[in-house]
Amino acid sequence: MHRRPRAALAAPTALAVTAALTLTGSVTATAAGPAPGDPHRPAVHFTPARNWMNDPNGLIHHDGLYHLYFQYNPEGDRWGNMSWGHATSPDLVHWTERPVAIGFTGQEHVFSGGIVYDEHNTSGLGTPEDPPLVAVYTSAYTPASERPGVQAQSLAYSLDGGYTWERYGGNPVLDIGHGDFRDPKVFWYGEGGYWVMAAVVATEHTVHFYRSENLRDWEFLSDFGPAHAADGIWEVPDLFELPVDGDPQDTRWVLIVNLNPGAVAGGSGAQYFVGDFDGTAFTPDRLVDPGPPAGEVIADFEDGYGGWEVVNDLDGTGSPGPFGDAPANGTLPDQQQVLGWVGDGLANTYLDGDGPRGHATSPEFTIGRDHINLKVGGGHHPDTGNGGHASVGLVVDGEVVRTATGRNTEHLDWVAWDVAEFAGRTARIRIDDDATGRWGHVLVDHIVQSDHPQPGLAAYDWLDHGRDHYAAVSFNDAPGGERITMAWMNNWQYAEATPTAPWRGAMALPRKLELRTVDGRPRLFQNPVDGIEGVYGEPAFRAEHLEVGPEGYALPPAAPGTAYQVELTLRPREAGEIGLRVHEGDGRAAVVGYDARERELFADRTNAGDTGFHHAFPSRSTAGLPLADGAVRLRVVVDTSSVEVYAADGLVAFTELVFPDPAHTGLSLYAEGGRGSVEDVTVRPLVPDGSGH
Q1: Nearby residues of 85 by Cβ (< 8 Å), 6 or more positions away
Q2: Measuring CA to CA, which residue among 511, 589, 528, 605 is closest to residue 266?
Q3: What is the reported pTM?
Q4: How far apart (Å, rounded) are the C-alpha atoms in residues 378 and 395?
């Protein structure tokens, strides 16, 4: 799209604290790394100089610059006084923080939204000679306003390239009288010649689509949802078209829906749907039945324990836990919100906290179908035969033949056991809580014999399988028609408790999206934007082939406070597990590995630096990923307080915050259960000022 040069318009001066900026927006962090007292400020991820930041907003490329607006509290380091902060970049890597763009008024929080370049001045908010940028954002009205508690869509416009903004006098432009109607993303639908808005009714798990000729008057088109992950609220939608396998004649539409909580790794996350948009409605190519499946229910915990043998308080402390006299009806005192159970009751062994131990065993039943499906959540304490587990198991002839455990999340997800080999045999279900430490509890519900396995959250399509990739949204008008997203690198479960100061909140690396066909259907592939290559330093280590066994293999460590990238191919061979340890020191590390037994990639931060600031932070995230020719290729970007993983050329991604001791700079390879190999290894520093070249 042609844009008139703006050489005559001078951009307002950047904030004074950004004078020495490279990437972070703060003079306290330079290309050499964070300053003392600020050890976790990233080197290659955007953070504001100070205060709270969450969702990216209004992403647009205009007059040669990428504009990042974001939810911002100018007054403190926790959520509040919601305004739009602002930063600009020529390459999506080096950022300059600008003054607050659209501020909190006392009557109106400025919630999320998008920006469009109104090239033909359809809104009338500029002139044909000087067309405006128009921000479409959510006005979240406060009790001091005339619309207390209402969320509605409003406009602001800029005539100087996005640096200063004027609110439209006719706001709001779209008001349905709802308290959770928000996050508009607007784009020009060229085939129809009108603007399209996607916005959510968050608590109803629906995306609403509207059209407008002028950005001021909006007509309802259709809605989509609920679908797939819908246990939390839906937020920040985005709809765009992409070619499939690079063919511009074969395109599909992608709808991103962020949700919180209820994501695949626990808490906040972003799912996506691939389908068709005809100018009125979005139709997905694929929908997975969320269950529950048909079959014979073994236990649903709706009428007490129903003949189960329940043993509480194995330690004799007098505790009523872990099972109590009756199933729980959801969340117990001092527990995070429990999600995903069926009906009213479930087995929840958090009664009296994580300390109490006990077990519960079902009445006998005969295995009569090929699968047993059940919902499981809670702590990740698998039954290894050595005690200390919190799990549910299938017992046949006195032997535990199938087990399942949670993933350190209070979200119950479907687990499917293939039990065809035990057809006609007598069995029991046993729930054990023998774990007493953090996350030492298990959640179980709706155990049912079925003819088919019930897909869980992992069967849906996710932008990221890690804990810290939320509010993902794309840039309008990116050069070359590229589709580039940014996301808030955090999770609402613990976002206000992360141990950083004077800032709180960072953005994940910008990602370029592509649709490629996998197993007969289009899937999103994501990789860091090309601009990151501009901060590549000379490789610190290269090797074509390394043998790795239980003794491990130490790689050259990074310098304190620096970022680096590791590219490598893992080939498990005889190893049951193989991977990479980063931020290593004093027996602690963040781990990126491949579990060959489960055929899954994982990111484990349970023993990585400071994990004690919130009980939901320790976690192990997983994603199913079959090997290709016996191997998996990884690209791992390590910063002072994050680890991002791109696997199989970007088919699977993980984003994980970590808060290590700054002295923990170790980097090593490891293998367990046998020997494996690591091939085509390159370790290179990421140097914002280019001094590594």
Answers
A1: 48, 53, 69, 70, 71, 72, 74, 97, 100, 101
A2: 605
A3: 0.93
A4: 21
Distances (CA, A) of 244 to 316, 483, 522, 523: 62, 13, 7, 9
Strand partners, 501: none
Q: At 473, phi and psi to the nearest 5?
A: -150, 155
Query: 10 Å Cβ neighbour count for 193?
Result: 10
Q: Both tokens of residue 645?
A: 């993983």
Domains by residue range for the chain, with CATH: 20-288+462-512 (2.115.10.20), 296-455 (2.60.120.260), 536-686 (2.60.120.560)
Residue among 496, 497, 501 nearest 37 (CA)? 501
Residue 495: strand, helix, or coil? helix
229 exposure class (CB count in 10 Å sphere: 0-12, 13-18, 19+) = buried
pLDDT tens column, 143-199:
999 999 999 999 999 999 999 999 999 999 999 999 999 999 999 999 999 999 999
63-89: pLDDT as tens digits = 999 999 999 999 999 999 999 999 999
pLDDT value of residue 3: 31
Report in angstroms the alpha-carbon separations of 515 from 272, 526, 652: 12, 9, 13
Residue position matching structure tokens 């080096």 = 94
Contact criterion met (CB below 8 Å) for 332 and 482: no
> How far apart are the C-alpha atoms of 94 and 372, rounded to whole Å?
52
Q: Which of the following is catalytic: 38, 55, 354, 464?
A: 55
- 55 catalytic residue (yes or no): yes
Q: How many residues does the chain have?
A: 693
